[in-house]
Write a structure and sequence with these properties.
By secondary structure, this protein is α+β, with helices and mostly antiparallel strands. The protein contains 4 helices and 5 strands, in the order αβααββββα. The chain is 44% helix and 26% strand. A 5-stranded antiparallel sheet has the order 1-2-3-4-5, with helices on both faces. The longest helix is centred in the N-terminal third of the chain and has 56 residues.
Length: 205
């Protein structure tokens, strides 16, 4: 009987079903994400940029606020100056008297006043004339200073100081005195609504 030799066939190393070989991703899984690295200089630059942006916003807010404050201050100063000028013009006009031209003086008393104050001077004019004409009163005035003493709701209380030079029948050589007028000015139309202190400039008690 002849010997029959058998040759072993090479076997293939096959992976068992359901098992994965090393290095092969499992079915249904994603490859792992790559790590992202950020340099320290980039982080510092980003933080600095953000800080500068915040500082710029804050400074802009301060600048807008400061401009608003300056604008308000300038408006208040301009209104005060206007009220002082209106009061000064009125005080000088009221102190400029010529008994021989009484109606012109009454016109100055009523100039740039509210209707209520103007009507008051119309009512008192005859009595004023009875005092000034016999005395042959004349006077002129030079402004010294004016100051807003208070303001409320657009109504200004202004003190006006004027030097009044006067002559009359009892003192023909003349005299000089400093008189303080208390003038009320309404910002709504910049008219004089009240006045006091005239008794210091005239012989009226």
């Amino acid at each position: 009987m002849s010997d029959t030799s058998t040759v072993d066939e090479p076997t293939l190393d096959k992976a068992a079903p359901g098992k994965s070989t090393p290095g092969t991703p499992k079915p249904g899984t994603r490859p792992s994400a790559r790590a992202v690295s950020i340099s320290l200089s980039t982080i510092i630059w980003t933080a600095a940029t953000a800080a500068l942006a915040i500082i710029a916003i804050v400074l802009a807010g301060f600048l807008i606020s400061a401009r608003g404050d300056i604008s308000h201050r300038d408006t208040v100063a301009a209104d005060d100056a206007h009220a002082q000028q209106v009061a000064t013009d009125y005080a000088v006009g009221a102190s400029t008297v010529n008994f021989a031209d009484f109606n012109a003086w009454v016109g100055r008393l009523k100039a740039n006043t509210t209707p209520a104050l103007s009507n008051k001077f119309d009512a008192t004019a005859p009595k004023l004339q009875e005092v000034l004409t016999p005395l042959k009163w004349t006077s002129s005035a030079q402004p010294v200073a004016a100051k807003v003493m208070s303001e409320s709701g657009g109504v200004y209380k202004v003190n006006v100081f004027v030097n009044v030079s006067s002559t009359n029948a009892q003192n023909p050589e003349g005299a000089q005195t400093t008189v303080t007028y208390n003038v009320t000015v309404d910002r709504s139309d910049w008219k004089v609504s009240d006045v006091g202190g005239m008794d210091g400039a005239l012989p009226i008690k």
